[in-house]
Amino acid sequence: MSDKSIKIIFFGNTEFSNPVLVKCAESYNVCSVVTNPSKKMGRGQKFVDTPVKILANNSNLEIIECDNLLDEGFIKKLKDVNPDLFVVVAYKILPKSLLGIPKYGAINLHSSLLPKYRGAAPIQRAILNKEKITGVSTFLIEPKVDTGKIIEQENCKIDEEDNYGTLSEKLSHIGADLVISSIKKYLSKKIQPYLQDESLVTLAPKIIKEEFLIDWNKEGSDINAQIKAFSPYPGAYTFLNGKRIKFFQSELINSQSSNKPGYIDAVTPNFFDIACTKGSLRIYKVQIEGKKIMDAKDFILGMPTLKDSRFS
Fold it and tell me: Which of 120, 132, 160, 254 has the greatest CB tally within 10 Å of its CB?
């Protein structure tokens, strides 16, 4: 069901935002799309658009690029639209001065089952903590981050083979359907948003670069979760013979090794095993510093003395 009389301003930056933007544009009148300005990136310092800007361009939607959400000209543009709703997905924190602009407020999609994992990195934190279930929540934005009244939630199983990339994709599509459902029910008053239970709050702070480094003194299950949480980007890393090595696909092997943590346990044509404090890790995808991601079999071919080597 669509209602093109409902005027929406959409805020987003990443690939995670795009399925929601597609669904909103199909069902409602997306008058403007707010996203970060294009930035110079890479060795050639070429301007790179956000995934949301690329999609909005291809969909002939009006784009507003903004760095400063308190800019008077930007605020005037939003007010001139006279929107019914803001829909915010994977964007910045909106200042209080913007929240009063839309007639019915601002709806945010968050990639956790709030109040669990409030913060910037809910998907990675859920994987790092070896959760079996996560989900998405829609809520009404309040000035304090991720604290608003919940409209709806939807569970999502974290499969054994999931990493950050695959889980993000699943949640973005579940979330897109949930946003449309939430808008419909909220505007028709078929649902009553409810307060979050503050006694159940857990936090998902921003990932810092020190968390990418593998500590082989940890249990295999923890390191396996670390590799999943940082795949396909930026990659959990270790060192071998002074070179940085990133791992992007692994499997936990529960058999206990007689080797010390970090030492190669076994090498086959297609994978190799590394001893951990508890259990071992079987490695399938690797990246040597300065090279592209490769299958373990190609890494092994280039490392004839891999057996009995130690990662540090």
Answer: 120
Cα–Cα dist 102/94, whole Å:
13
Angle between helix axes 51-58 and 18-27 (nearest 10 degrees) is 30
| pLDDT tens digits for range 179-229 | 999 999 999 999 999 999 999 999 999 999 999 999 999 999 999 999 999
- Partners of 286 in the beta sheet? 247, 294
Residue 204's identity, in one-letter code, is: A
Domain range for residue 97? Answer: 3-200
Q: Which residue has the tokens 């199983």?
A: 157
- Of the three residues 200, 230, 250, the one that is the final residue of a domain is 200
Nearest 5°: the CA angle 38, 44, 48 is 20
pTM: 0.95
One domain for residues 164 and 248: no
Contact 80, 72 (CB under 8 A): no
166 in a structural domain = yes
